[in-house]
Structure formats: structure tokens, C-alpha cells
Amino acid sequence: MSLRAVLLITLQREPGTGYDILQRFKAGLAHVWQASHQQLYRELDRMRGDGLLTCETVSQDERPDRKIYQLTEIGLQALDAWLAEPLAASPVRQPLFAKFFAWERWPTDARREELTTLREQLKQRLKTYAAIEREWFSDPQALTPSQRAPWHTLRLGQRLTETWMEWIDEVQEEVE
Amino acid sequence: MSLRAVLLITLQREPGTGYDILQRFKAGLAHVWQASHQQLYRELDRMRGDGLLTCETVSQDERPDRKIYQLTEIGLQALDAWLAEPLAASPVRQPLFAKFFAWERWPTDARREELTTLREQLKQRLKTYAAIEREWFSDPQALTPSQRAPWHTLRLGQRLTETWMEWIDEVQEEVE
DNA sequence: GTCTGATATGCAACTATGTGCATATCGATT
DNA sequence: AATCGATATGCACATAGTTGCATATCAGAC
Predict the structure, then answer these.
(1) Is residue A149 part of a domain?
(2) Between chains, do A155 and B146 touch, taking CB under 8 Å as contact?
(3) Cβ separation of B104 and A167 shorter than 8 Å?
(4) Is the sign of the CA dihedral B90, B94, B97, B99 positive or negative?
(5) Where on strand C do bases come within 7 A of a protein Cβ?
(6) What is the pTM of this model?
(7) Is residue A89 part of a domain?
(8) Into how many domains does chain A fold?
């Protein structure tokens, strides 16, 4: 259900194609949601079938057609209903933690490799977040409340990522 | 796949029934993994079918039978293979963040309710984690390396939860 | 000239997880 | 006497997400 809600929100802010939304998932929404193109196109088509979206096909010379989606009145109502309803608590699932419970069977090389790789991924994630900050929130004090709200989410994304990285450093230092 | 791995790890540490594992998910593994009893029993049966586990049925007077699972040699090999293989990067999915991108359509009451409820859930989670700490890790300095490894995961679970709570406080204070 | 990556969309099969319902007993509460 | 929570297990159906494959063009690198 949450993918639907994310699509309603981003299309309400600005109509666009599946491909456009994929770009948003890689850029401005990188700290919010990610989905494969297969899942995305399928979901957009279903939402159109359910009357939440309308679709306008735009032909391009020498390129595939673009299918631009936007919200219908029903889509807007569905969005408002989702906003009014509290989210279900998300279950904790940390597969990496499980490996720490099998410490003696976890080869040292594999462990070092795993933690180092994860740390690099987190560092890359922070770079992506920094790019979002530069592009959208370069002057936080100047933002309106509704612009400042997404900025807060980016800040939390950064802090959670930093918390992970600091922890990896501590663990690595202790066991090396 | 990760549920399987978690089951291999916990059953390798100590054989037990599906119900036992459910209790572990609520207690000592609360910061690692959660699953419904339906999913759990089904997965245990499949793992037995795949030769990863053996099952010994123990009859009890006036109670349902207990089916005690433990790892086979194949199960142990599967665990070692999983430990050696790095985890795939997990996609970012934060449905709550999405609501912040629809700030103006998100009713104030619903927002306050949602953040307050989430904060209470996180506080409850910290209590659960504190109980784990008391039960298993009351003296971190006295732990062996393989006991200390799970302790590290609990510390990260705590810090991530605290980071979330601090953020909620900041957001609530700014918008109230 | 061929390969790679960007643009643009999708189907089909599979796996993982969630939801609703079902069964049976015990002890404690109302 | 009836209901509730703990003990103990499961089936069936539905939804969410992953993986493999497919199509078509253009620009730029090698």
C-alpha cells in the first residue's frame, strides 16, 4: 500500500511518467522510497485501472511514447484518506544483526569485507543526501513550513546513516 | 531468504520449537527479526522438507505436541554459506517520510496523533531493548568476543531508536 | 562497426510476507 | 458458567516485491 501512497504524493506534487518517478527515486526521494521499474510501471497501470490516475500518452519522434500520469479526484481522496490514517508499525528486520549472533562461524575475512562494503554504501548514501540538500534545501531558514517538512526527513535520513557508520567504525576498531 | 538464515542461526545456538522461536522474536531477538507464527511454522516445515532441519515430535499430556527443530549437517553448511556471502543492500523505504512531502494536505490532528503514537512505540521498544540488556548483557566488559558481538547489535538498535525519538521531539517542538 | 548507457515501456514467473480462519487444552478472571 | 490469555500448531488466499526476459532508439566511447 505504501508504494501507492508514495506515487500519489509525488504525482500530486508534479505529474510525470514512470520513468520520471524512477529518476525521483534515485534523486530527491532517495531517502524515502525505492522501487524497480517493473514494479513501478505495473503499479501505475493498476492505479489507472482503479481510477486513481489518468494517463496521457505523448508521442515523441524516434523515441518511445511517454505516458504522463496525474491524479484524479478519486486519487486525491485516496491520498487524503491515507494521510489521515496512521501507519502500521513496521517490523524490525536486521539481517546483518543476525550474523553477529553467529560470530564464531562468521569468517573474519567475510566479516571485514561485509562491514567495509556496507560502510562504503552508507558513505555513498550520505553523498546522495548531500546532493539533495544542495539542490532543494540550500537555505533551510528560508524555507516555508511545507518545504521545511521534507527537509526534516532528509535530516533524519542523514542522522540514521551517520549512526550506522559510527557504529561500524566502533565495531571494526574493537575487533581488528 | 533472511528469515531462513535467522532461523538457522537461532536453532544452531539452541534447538527449539516454532513457539520457542516466536518467544525469542519477542524477547532476545526483538531488535533483530520479527515474523508471524503463520510464516514461521510454514518456513520451518519447508526447511525440514529441504533437509536443513530435523524435527522431533514430543508429546505432552493434555497439551499440543511440541515439534523440536534442529540443524542438519546440510543446515549447518547453508548457514556457513549465508555467513560467507555479503548481504544485498536493503532498499530505503520510509512511508512516514512520504507524508512530510504532502505537508499541506496532512491534517494537523492526524500528524500530531501519528508522531505521538510513533514516539510511544519507540519508547516501548527502548524498554524492550533495556530488558534484553539486563537479561543478557548486564556486564559488557565481562563478555567474551562472541557474546559481545550480539551486544553491539543491541547498542545500535538502541541508538537508532533514540535518533528517531530525538527527531520526533525536534519536529514536534518546531511545529507545535 | 560494436558496445555501453540513457530514454521509455512492459510481461511472466517466482518468492516473501500479510491476513483470515481453524483447532485444542489449561488456568485465571469475571 | 463464560470469557480471556497462554500454550501449540497449521491451511488457504491475497498482496508486495524480486528476477528474468523483451523491445526500440539515440548518443558517445572504443
Answers:
(1) yes
(2) no
(3) no
(4) positive
(5) 7-12, 15-21, 23-26
(6) 0.95
(7) no
(8) 2
